[in-house]
Amino acid sequence: MYDSSEIIPPQMPPNDEDNLLPLKSEVEWAIRQLPSGKSSGVDNIYAEMIKVSGDPGVELYHKLCLKIWETEQWPEEWRKSVFVTLPKKGDLQQCSN
């Protein structure tokens, strides 16, 4: 859906107090920047799923960003992350590897 060869950051409006809300074009640009081929997070949503959601997905994530911006509250689920270490060489039974 998105061609990564056309990576162009959104045009920013003049920086004044009236234009501080996140723009839909910024959300669309951020979605295009999501790396493909990575594992999902704890929500089981892959970047590819967000990318193929098209305009309805951009609209949904823009509304979510606006709500976060206005309430200054992140969803609790976004505060969780899981790190899995993957050994690249050596004895896989040794935690130090």
Number of helices: 3
Question: What's the rounded overall pLDDT mean?
Answer: 82
| Biggest sheet record | none
β-strand number = 0
| Uncertain spans | none
* Fraction of residues in H or I helices: 25-40%
Tell me the overall shape: elongated
Portion in strands: under 5%
Rounded to the nearest angstrom, the distance between the terminal CA atoms is: 40 Å
Written account of the structure:
The structure is a single chain. By secondary structure, the protein is mainly alpha-helical. The protein has three helices and no strands. The longest helix is centred in the middle third of the chain and has 18 residues, at 54-71. The mean pLDDT is 82.
Could you name the key traits of this structure?
mainly alpha, endonuclease, Endonuclease-reverse transcriptase, single chain, about 100 residues, hydrolase
